[in-house]
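Hi support team,

I'm opening this ticket because the web form for multi-chain structure prediction keeps timing out on my end. I have pasted the exact lines I submitted so you can reproduce it. The total is 670 residues across two entries, so I didn't expect it to be a heavy job. Is there a limit I'm missing, or should I split the entries? Thanks in advance, R.K.
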Amino acid sequence: MLAFTVKNHRLAAVRKPLPRLRPGWALIKLRLAGICNTDVEILRGYHNFRGTPGHEFVGEVIALGKTSPREKSRWLGRRVVGEINIACAALGFRSLCAFCRRGLKTHCSRRKVLGILHHDGAFAEYFSLPLENLYLVPKNVTDEQAVFTEPLAAACQILAQVPAARHHNIAVLGDGKLAQLIARVLRTAARNVTLFGKHESKLALARLAKIKTQLLHGDASDIHRIQETFSLVVEATGSPTGLSLAQHITEPRGTLVLKSTFHGAAPVETWPTVVKELTLIGSRCGPFGKALALLRSHRVDPTPLISRTFPLAEAPAAIAHAQKSGVMKVLLKTD
Amino acid sequence: MLAFTVKNHRLAAVRKPLPRLRPGWALIKLRLAGICNTDVEILRGYHNFRGTPGHEFVGEVIALGKTSPREKSRWLGRRVVGEINIACAALGFRSLCAFCRRGLKTHCSRRKVLGILHHDGAFAEYFSLPLENLYLVPKNVTDEQAVFTEPLAAACQILAQVPAARHHNIAVLGDGKLAQLIARVLRTAARNVTLFGKHESKLALARLAKIKTQLLHGDASDIHRIQETFSLVVEATGSPTGLSLAQHITEPRGTLVLKSTFHGAAPVETWPTVVKELTLIGSRCGPFGKALALLRSHRVDPTPLISRTFPLAEAPAAIAHAQKSGVMKVLLKTD
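Hello R.K., no limit was hit. The queue was backed up. Here is the completed structure from your submission:
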């Protein structure tokens, strides 16, 4: 099969055998994969991952490891999306780690992560995941919508961590792909959501989804540009410098959700968090069920965020395109 | 009266008139003042404060602005300690700010802060505070104990923000004055508290209070030195580099309390907070009533932390002494 791996900070095409399936695992044929900033970070060295990247996908189950006839009829030939953290039980450990015992599979201390950590991902014709990670895609959800389930679930995680509906004034810092999804998800729970970003064309996309916007310059002057303060701020700029501005615009005793993962450090003064007694909440993977429900009900439509779709075979050109200014979601498609 | 002000990054003695008293305010004669790291930061330029520093004190009320006979008999001649944030009502504003309306006087948007922000502090023979900020010192609490009320209250704030008793394994990073008080306060609520610091002599002080200790080297190797993880970590090193180590030793979904304020920034990688979904809580001033209760009941005795007491007139020498390696709390005393 065709797959892509990280080599010298680029994606390189390789021929690989099909993955072998453990009991309870599925072989998935890719339909659509999404390129995420984490994939770009992985090329830059994040997690030192050397396998096949790709963790946003919609695919079709085409084979199963040892399992019951009931599971077979449930999954074979069906369209699926999948959670990316592979935890103790699926890895064959009989004694679960402390986090799996608490039901926190996304924090499993032995976890592998699809396309990010010790498990080959979705930039390939075929890849494998445990059945326990999979979700059937509802019929009225298109492939182009379903491929957003993983990042949309990450956005929904904020709703699981913070009572967004109680916040009268919410800010999202960043106008990239994840920030846009976050603003749309928060908008389902709260009326007053403002997206702050540096790109007028991206802000225009957000306004179509009834999100307020404000243009930033991306320099120190932004601190004076934002006069308001917010009881809930989500930092999703993908840049280490976003935290300073985020602290500045969060009101005393307010909540600041950190959503950006990136490789590298920036000088940060943390005294505003102490003086204002802010609560900073790190937020990562989220509930797929909630994300699929938002897609099924059309309360969130992510498809305006799609910039371009490439054939899987052109993955290196696609990831280069994804890094161009103004480009939003880039997809990889198989026949 | 004699007072000290900040001049060219040093304390300079000046002669000043007595402060004028608004209605509901008290004139306080200093008995003992404590030197805090914030005072040292103020000399370095923190908050750009140019008045009289000093916010840890025990004093005696010797005069009152316009008030009722009942208040006069309650306060005149009594030993007091005082909260340092002076809020809307005490400043004479009839219409309260949004934070005062919510009862969050420590976050009053117009606040002045004793010895830190727009209000002269306790490194002086006399200073003023609103009666609403004052607390009577119980008879069985000595001046040497009472002078710790303000930093002890700041330590108690953590108990108000985090259910410490539910945490089975608590770490305090830092072995300085505030870290030591924090560890003692947490120890009243939880059995398993470990203090991490660079100074064996300071760790020995903590062990006398039944706190576990571990010696750090203060370099990058410390990350490998601490094998355990903790569900609750308090960062109280007073150094911008403490946050990296603190994130490292906090377990997934754990809580990290930020207690250090300092002037300056350090490069910090924030991805561990996102990946582990940590909750970071900024923590500043705290409840004086709780701190006085701990002193009165002898559940916390801060006096072993006193390194040396200087006459008020020798404040410049005292603050120089306070910055020497190994020195803990330095006090200023009046006759």
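A quick check on our side: Residues 40 and 334 of chain B are 21 Å apart (CA to CA). Let us know if the file doesn't open in your viewer.
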